[in-house]
Amino acid sequence: MHAILVIRTDKPEAEIGLFDGYTQLAYNTWLAHRELAETIHIKIGELLKSQSRTLHDLEGIVVFKGPGSFTGLRIGLTVANALAYSLSVPIVATEDPAWLENGIARLQQGEDEKITIPEYGALPNITPQKK
């Protein structure tokens, strides 16, 4: 499989990468924190451009599903799901320390979750609405 996009957004430092099978083509880490929604698309575009690729060259997506930051995971998985759906490519989400290797292996075995769901690690802390 060629041109696999990997995304990890469970902590303030976000990570994206581009792989050809298990071979890393490019990897980018940046302090996204509260600017993840504004920067993730730009960073993906820069990553692809650095390898003379476009979104249409992607053949699969691996995303870290947690546990971690509620907002970070929500943004990262939403971007990953939207890309997978719009490009008609398979997507898998993993949550273990070897998330990247396991995710690539699952893609190469033909797995496709279609839609990935975050694993936050705890129940959400929802505060009552203020009047």
Detailed description of the structure:
- It is a single chain.
- The chain has 131 residues and is α/β, with parallel strands linked by helices.
- It has one domain: ATPase, nucleotide binding domain (Nucleotidyltransferase, domain 5, 2-Layer Sandwich), CATH 3.30.420.
- It is built from three helices and five strands.
- Strand 4, helix 2 and strand 5 form a beta-alpha-beta unit.
- The mean pLDDT is 94.
In the predicted model, the low-confidence regions spanning at least 5 consecutive residues are none
Summarize the main sheet: 5 strands, mixed
- Using only C-alpha atoms, the radius of gyration works out to 15 Å
| Annotated CATH homologous superfamily | ATPase, nucleotide binding domain
Which class best fits the helix and strand makeup?
Answer: alpha/beta
Q: What name does CATH use for the topology?
A: Nucleotidyltransferase, domain 5
SSE order, one letter for each helix or strand: EEEHEHEH
Strand element count:
5
Short description:
The chain has 131 residues and is an alpha/beta fold. Helices cover 33% and strands 24% of the residues.
Write the layout of secondary structure elements.
Layout: E1 4-8, E2 13-20, E3 23-31, H1 36-50, E4 60-64, H2 70-87, E5 91-94, H3 99-108
Parallel strand pairs: 1-4, 4-5
Antiparallel strand pairs: 1-2, 2-3
Helix pairs in contact: 1-2
Q: What key phrases describe this protein's structure?
A:
5-stranded mixed β-sheet, alpha/beta, Nucleotidyltransferase, domain 5, single chain, 131 residues, 5 strands
